[in-house]
Amino acid sequence: MRTALRLAAGTGSLAAGGWVLRALNDAPASLGAGPGAIRTVADGSPNYRDGVFHNLEPASALKLDAEENRLILFDMISSRSASRPGGAVPLAAPPVDARPEPLAVNWLGHSTTLLEIDGYRVLTDPVWSNRCSPSRTIGPQRLHPIPLPLETLPE
Question: Each residue of 61-77: b (16+ CB within 10 Å) or e?
């Protein structure tokens, strides 16, 4: 019986590990520049000295005791349904004219906005995938359809 349990636990662990590796397979390409390109930018930063970044403002550490940590973890795990909308999220496609406005902001969901400033358009934090994650398998799923197809955005 013990051997069967060990075999089942080992098989389950291998399967879970394989699933995680598969899910993270596409993550590195989604995470941006390689170390060489990052090093070039980092070396030019005034906050980068002696091989490390230095904050301009001192960090304030949040100190929680074991009970507070337990309560936060329990709340994160147990209240998943409380973080989901009760019904369909109402959407309205923003008006996108050929010429940008002198000053306008269109909210496209979560933290994505289409800014129009002095004749230029800037798309902030665009997420057009089904998950807010570098992986197509792991990460929070989209709660509503994309606000408008990328092809409809003007250049």
Answer: eeeeeeeeeeeeeeeee
Where along the chain do its domains lie?
A: 1-53, 92-155
> Would you state the pLDDT for residue 24?
62
Would you state the pLDDT for residue 22? 66
pLDDT of residue 146: 82
The answer to whether 102 touches 119, Cβ cutoff 8 Å, is yes
Question: Do residues 88 and 104 make contact, with C-beta atoms less than 8 angstroms apart?
Answer: no
Average pLDDT over residues 12-39: 69
Question: How are the residues of the chain apportioned to helix, strand and coil, as percentages rounded to the nearest 5?
Answer: 35, 15, 50
Q: What number of CA atoms fall less than 13 Å from residue 102's CA on the CB side?
A: 0
Rounded CA-CA distance 147/130 in Å is: 12
Residue with tokens 């002198």: 102
* DSSP letter (8 states) at residue 48: E
If you search the block for the tokens 């406005």, which residue do you land on? 101
pTM: 0.46
* pLDDT score of 119: 84
Confidence check: pLDDT of 60 > 80:
no
Distance CA 23, CA 135 (A): 6
Taking only Cα atoms into account, the Rg of the chain, rounded to an integer number of angstroms, comes to 23
